[in-house]
């Protein structure tokens, strides 16, 4: 147990530091947006580029990883969506529930967790593949359904869904973290290397990613409450923290084998709570209060579920 806590406790202590910093008035909650912007626009792109550019392309694109992560995400998304619809929620709200069930915070929590176990290079490679699935499949799907609304069925709704998915995809492809991923892949394919004078600043930025990101998560949670959203939080947490990694694990055992470190990484990435901007993405459809409550409850619960997943990781092996 001590070994497990040695992995998970530092992550949550940094989150707790961010929470205390905001509650004590050392930082305003709005300051977390600035620090989060630093992570998303500078540190995270540097981390992705640094890890991908230093590896051969065959090492950074593992089909079994992509299929396991995507399969788990789609299963969790569909479960959350169907539950919400059966509970009488309109399509936009149901899509936000599905998003919370399926889109992990791989860039802030997942990469820090995997780095604790396997090193930052493996964490960044796992993050890159997770981001491909999130940015090209899960997020566009959730945003398209969320923006399709409850209007007339048929071609009108389908057209809105296609337009929303395409707009979401274009917006994501312009973000610095996706650009860092793509440039890293180009460097990997062509076996290019940065000059030492440029490589060192990239390494320093990459090293700052995980600690700052974890402080941001904790600071963002300060002041959030579960009031009125306990049932939704419980369903989203169960899908995100249990169903997503369990389906990913099942697919790992069924699909052709890949290196054990990647088998464990895909399960860990699937097991982390939802992405940090979840309430922001829910604002347009008016479901940000539900999303904020679910993020708080799921992140707190994840300390226990992630500790359990880490403890069971040595058992994950296929082929």
Characterization of the model:
The structure is a single chain. This protein has a single domain (2-314), classed as Na+/H+ antiporter like fold (Up-down Bundle). It has helices at 2-23, 31-53, 57-60, 63-86, 91-102, 106-118, 120-148, 155-173, 176-190, 196-207, 209-221, 230-254, 260-271, 278-282, 288-312. With 319 residues, the protein is an all-alpha fold. It starts with a helix and ends in a 7-residue tail after the last helix. The chain is 79% helix and 0% strand. The relative contact order is 0.19.
Secondary-structure arrangement, i.e. CATH architecture: Up-down Bundle
Number of helices: 15
Query: What helical percentage do the residues reach?
Result: over 70%
CATH class: Mainly Alpha
**How many structural domains can be distinguished in the coordinates?**
1
Overall pLDDT metric? 89
N-to-C CA distance: 28 Å
H/E topology pattern: HHHHHHHHHHHHHHH
Shape, please? globular
Low-confidence stretches: none
Q: Can you summarize the main beta sheet?
A: none
What is the fold named in CATH at topology level?
Na+/H+ antiporter like fold
Number of strands: 0
The radius of gyration computed from the alpha-carbon positions, rounded to a whole number of angstroms, is: 19 Å
* Class from helix and strand fractions: mainly alpha
Strand content: under 5%
Quick overview:
The protein is mainly alpha-helical. It is built from 15 helices and no strands.
Q: What does the secondary structure layout of this molecule look like, with pairings?
A:
Blueprint: H1 2-23, H2 31-53, H3 57-60, H4 63-86, H5 91-102, H6 106-118, H7 120-148, H8 155-173, H9 176-190, H10 196-207, H11 209-221, H12 230-254, H13 260-271, H14 278-282, H15 288-312
């Amino acid at each position: 147990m001590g070994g497990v806590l040695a992995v998970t406790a530092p992550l949550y202590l940094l989150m707790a530091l961010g929470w205390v910093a905001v509650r004590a008035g050392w930082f305003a909650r709005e300051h977390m947006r600035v620090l989060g912007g630093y992570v998303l626009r500078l540190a995270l792109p540097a981390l992705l580029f640094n890890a991908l550019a230093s590896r051969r392309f065959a090492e950074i694109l593992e089909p079994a990883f992509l299929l396991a992560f995507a399969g788990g995400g789609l299963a969790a998304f569909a479960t959350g969506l169907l539950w919400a619809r059966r509970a009488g929620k309109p399509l936009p709200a149901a899509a936000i529930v599905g998003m919370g069930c399926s889109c992990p915070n791989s860039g802030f929590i997942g990469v820090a967790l995997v780095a604790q176990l396997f090193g930052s290079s493996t964490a960044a490679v796992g993050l890159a593949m997770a981001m491909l699935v999130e940015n090209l499949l899960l997020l566009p799907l959730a945003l398209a359904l969320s923006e399709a609304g409850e209007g007339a069925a048929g071609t009108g709704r389908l057209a809105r869904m296609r337009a929303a998915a395409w707009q979401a995809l274009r917006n994501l492809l312009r973000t610095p973290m996706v650009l860092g991923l793509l440039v890293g892949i180009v460097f990997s394919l062509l076996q290019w290397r940065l000059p030492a004078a440029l490589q060192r600043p990239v390494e320093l930025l990459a090293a700052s990613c995980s600690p700052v990101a974890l402080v941001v998560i904790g600071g963002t949670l300060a002041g959030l409450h579960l009031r009125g959203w306990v049932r939704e939080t419980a369903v989203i947490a169960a899908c995100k923290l249990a169903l997503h990694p369990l389906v990913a694990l099942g697919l790992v055992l069924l699909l052709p084998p890949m290196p054990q470190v990647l088998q464990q990484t895909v399960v860990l990435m699937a097991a982390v709570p939802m992405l940090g901007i979840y309430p922001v993405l829910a604002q347009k459809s008016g479901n940000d209060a539900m999303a904020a409550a679910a993020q708080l409850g799921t992140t707190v619960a994840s300390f226990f579920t992630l500790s359990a997943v880490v403890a069971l990781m040595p058992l994950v092996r296929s082929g």
